[in-house]
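Usage

Read records sequentially. Each one opens with the input sequence:
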Amino acid sequence: MRRTPHRRLRTTATTALAMALGTIGLAALPTTANAADNTLAVQYRTSASGAQVSQSAPWFKVRNTSSAPVALAGVKVRYYFKAESAGATYRFACDWAVRGCANITGSFGTLTHPTATADRYLEIGFTAAAGSLAPGTDTGDIRLRFHRSDWQQIVQSDDHSFGGAQGTWADWPKVTAQLAGTTVWGTEPGGTVQPPPAPTLFDDFNYGSHTDPQLSAHGWSLRSWSGGPGVPGATWSPGNVSFSTVDGNSVMQLETATSGTAASTRQAEISTSAMKFKNGTYAARVKFSDAPAYGPDGDHVVQTFFTINDLKAPMADDYAEYDFEYPPNGGWGETSNIFFTTSWETYDPNTGQSVNQHTVARSSHAGWRDLVVTIDGNDIRYYIDGQLFSTHGAGYLPERGMVIAFNQWLTDLTGQTSTEARAYEQQIDYVLHVKDQVLTPGEVAAKVGAYRATGKTFEDTVTAG
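and closes with the structure output:
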């Protein structure tokens, strides 16, 4: 099956950009996310300090110790205790919380590997309405209690997480915090049991040339067929994808060259062959350019990193696309450099009707940029150089898998009318996808650093589904 070609039209409005989607061309598609760096810390105190009580009363505060916002809906806190008997059952209550008790959830679980001090746990979660934690902030008080269903006494003195002397707030590593399923704080009873590593794609782009057989062996496809986006009649050339070493790292380079005519325009695109990427974290280090490598400047060039799947029918509701796009010379009605992040729900290639959410910054983004986009069950978040750039809503979440892609192309030939040869370059240092885990930019950097420390240049354990 082959993707319908795709072109973009963007025009300036008084206070926003009106964006319409036509056709985009990518690789042929098939027919058919621990590097945590103390993202969170948990403080604890108790208002029921007795060795035996009718109700246990653990109170918590969760603090964001990272440099990026943390969505509380992805956070779980576990308090571990020893049940009084195998058949004992428990009930949970929230008495008061700064974020609202209606936004606090509580449930009980049983440990797979019980110890002398714990065979159960109380797991605290948050609804989406609890919001997020900015760097350096905490949730404020979360005042909880739980009791036996038969109201018999609870023996706390033998519980792993209990601290009878904790009448004031203090960091408490005897409870754990998980973020997107990964333990980022505390020690489980008997020591932390690390979950199996999340399925991951990492590529350092350590290849010899566009003809290197390892490219296809590693699941990459270089575009060679005609069609949009961009200038009708332009060529998509695999030879415009090359590899070199920059500052000790292997990099991939996309070149777009033209002499001002469609026949002379050669563009570049590379994507994964498999449409198997959905929720999780996507990251790449990309070098954008404001000026051509040679020749006169001014063409309406677009430099990108994105994920996308195929539009099965006009306005199909299972279409998805998430873009970082940089037109350094404007275009789509813009007259100077502008940076877009766009989340697509669907579009009609015949009428231009579209459903998307986009964010723009009208400034230069030339140079190396660390790009991260995270997708979970709540929203889509775009980061540039470790800073949150935009958050797009749940209405734009993907329904099925996508490919990962980079391309560089010309929207038209009106930006520069010279017939002198010129070429633009976009470089990519690496790409990373961690399935079903939301990583902070700091965690992304740590994970990439770990790959490079061991000399591993490629890994792909991601499967469809």
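Summary fields computed downstream for this record:
- Residues 1-37 have pLDDT under 50 and may be disordered.
- The radius of gyration is 26 Å.
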